[in-house]
């Protein structure tokens, strides 16, 4: 009975939003078909999305990659999926591979993510993918999106330098204070006018994604009054998070099954516990060193956690996660320590490394570390783990893995040698141990 009540409530909520959208479109001088309602189901169960699908809806959105790639394969292939919001570059390929019916990415906010998407679409042999550039019209630091002054530049890059992407328009997420959202929407419409002029794009082909269940009528009104009714094609109104006021529905909600590890939950202890607190070690150098440790020590945990969850298997997760955390943590130490030392002021570097040759070696090591991309680092983790897990396989394969994973060993060894040249630093066993 509770499930039936929840399903009925979700479908009722959808019909209510569609009705409001149709009336808002009519008031702005457009047909209801000009407004696309994207039902965003983050943290909601597959059964709820399926209910709305069975009610005839086909346009759905998600905000979290891990939830998305788990949920989408369980649902019909004719759904037109939208990914909405900030997308991390290291999750681009897994998203595109897992969701072949991904219709649009609403959240391209920098050149790097545009390039990653373009390459991933090409390598997977997909048809060109529609994208919207996300603009931070509210100026809130907590929100993703490019500054309005730079949206033309990014739109040009997508249009001209990303042949496997289809630049389709702009999106924004207004402030939660709905009294402020009209200004956010006006800013996005102004950006649209500038982009259309800069890339010579017909206004009727340009899509605007702005407004959720609490404010999309305002979005339609603003767009209509500023741009004229002929420019409203493709305006998107999101159903928000499919919240429905129903006690039965709350019982059926699920929590976000994404990364169970919060960065803030990771202990803030120093990487090494052997930094002395005695008065003799209270120098500027020691304080700077401790500060740098606190800045970089979480990097390895993050890398390890990400790698541990990358190829999750139900029985093998604990083993794989443990191995990858170790390798990722070691890479975090190498990269973090090297970067921290290289960025020290010259007078501190001279104090730590009196030998000019050592300072030169530090700079060379830092250059080598910085040249390793995130993709290269993941490959390094992968090969290091396989090397330790398949030591009994054929000699040729073992040799290849040893060669591929020796890069981390070499960088770690070079760093340890350098640190031994610094009399004020005690080298941790976590650096000197095997990967």
UniProtKB/TrEMBL annotation:
Keyword Nuclease in record: no
Organism: Oryza glumipatula
Functional note: Pyridoxal 5'-phosphate (PLP)-binding protein, which may be involved in intracellular homeostatic regulation of pyridoxal 5'-phosphate (PLP), the active form of vitamin B6.
Domain Alanine racemase N-terminal: residue ranges: 31-219
A family per Pfam: Ala_racemase_N
Key words of the record: Pyridoxal phosphate
PANTHER family documented for this protein: PROLINE SYNTHETASE CO-TRANSCRIBED BACTERIAL HOMOLOG PROTEIN, PYRIDOXAL PHOSPHATE HOMEOSTASIS PROTEIN
N6-(pyridoxal phosphate)lysine, modified sites: 42
Domain (Essential protein Yae1 N-terminal) ranges: 300-337
Biased composition (Basic and acidic residues): 390-404
Keyword Methyltransferase applies: no
Family matches, as HAMAP family: PLP_homeostasis
One term of GO molecular function: pyridoxal phosphate binding
Top-level taxon: Eukaryota
InterPro entries: Ala_racemase_N, Essential_protein_Yae1_N, PLP-binding_barrel, PyrdxlP_homeostasis
Entry protein name: Pyridoxal phosphate homeostasis protein
Coiled coil regions, renumbered to chain: none
Family in the record: Belongs to the pyridoxal phosphate-binding protein YggS/PROSC family.
Stretches for region Disordered: 387-407
